[in-house]
Task: structure prediction
Amino acid sequence: MLGGRRIALAPLAEEIADRYFAEFPEDIERYGDAARAWEVHDTCHCLHWAILDAEGYASLEKEVTWLRDVLGARGFPLEKLARNLALAAAVVEERVPDGVLVAGRLHAASASVRVSSDPPA
Result:
């Protein structure tokens, strides 16, 4: 729920996955049949956390930090997580009425992952 309105996460996550795999088609080959399912699954969680954050019930930063650490430990390129969060922000801006706060949270999370994954200078 966002502002009292029910938000269907799966269609948003599907659109984000379409955009993600358009940019990173090699991930389908690398991760096989599970690639899209995991992309949609993880993205639904990120969207949910962002909405809960905007509503004051959770911390997207905390949850994305956890996800970043899990994916990083598995060798997943964190710049792709950052890009996925930016794509999520764009889709929310386009498709979710009154989603500007949620999109802002996703943009901030994307920037945070980018900074944390940059090599030291």
Residues 19 and 87 are 7 Å apart (CA to CA).
